[in-house]
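=== RUN LOG ===
request id: a7f3
mode: sequence -> structure
chains: 1
length: 194
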Amino acid sequence: MDNEKLLVEQLISGSEKAFVTLYNNYKDVIYGYSLKLLKVNTYAEEILQDVFMKVWQKRETLDTTLSFKSFLFTIARNKCFDFLEKAANIDKMKQAIFYKSQKSFMNSDQRLIEVDFEQIKREAFECLSPKRRIIFEMSREKRMTYDEIATELGISESTVKSQMSKALKNMRNFLNRHQDVPFILIYLLKVCLS
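=== RESULT ===
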C-alpha cells in the first residue's frame, strides 16, 4: 500500500501517469460494484467514468492518510444511489433497470407502486432502533461516509459499520416477513438496501 500512497501523492501533484495507474488498478472493481447496483453495463461504465472524473477534479484535496480504495467506493456508491434515485422518476430508465423484459405499467399503476414502495420503505425504516435509524439516515439519505458519521456522533467507525450492518439485516428481515408485498416492490427495496 506504500506504492498506492506514493501514487496518490503523485496524483495530488497532477501526475497523469499516476492517475492512469490508479485507474487501471481499480477500474474493474469499481465497474463490477456499479454493475451489481445498476444491472446495466452502459450505466455502470458511466458511473466508472464519473468516479474517476471526480477523483481527477478533487485530486488536490485527497488525503493520503485515508484509504484511496474506500474513497473510490464511497464516490461510486453515492453516484449509483443518485442515479437510481433519478432513474426511479424516469419511466424509460425504470424499464431499462427494473422492468427490462416486461411491458410498461400504466401511469396509474406506476403511481400506486411508487406510493406502496415509499410506504413499505418507511415501515422497514421504522422497525429500526432510534440509534440505527439515525446512522442509516446519515449514510443513505445524507450520503455521509462511515468516518464522517462516527466523527459527528462521537462513536467509532467500527460501531457505525456494525450498526449499519444490523440495520440492513433488520430491514431485509422485515421485507422477508412481508410475503404479501408484490415482488417488484421487494426487488426495488432490496436494490436500495444492497
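=== NOTES ===
Confidence is low (pLDDT under 50) at residues 101-108, 181-191.
The two ends are 28 Å apart (CA to CA).
=== END ===
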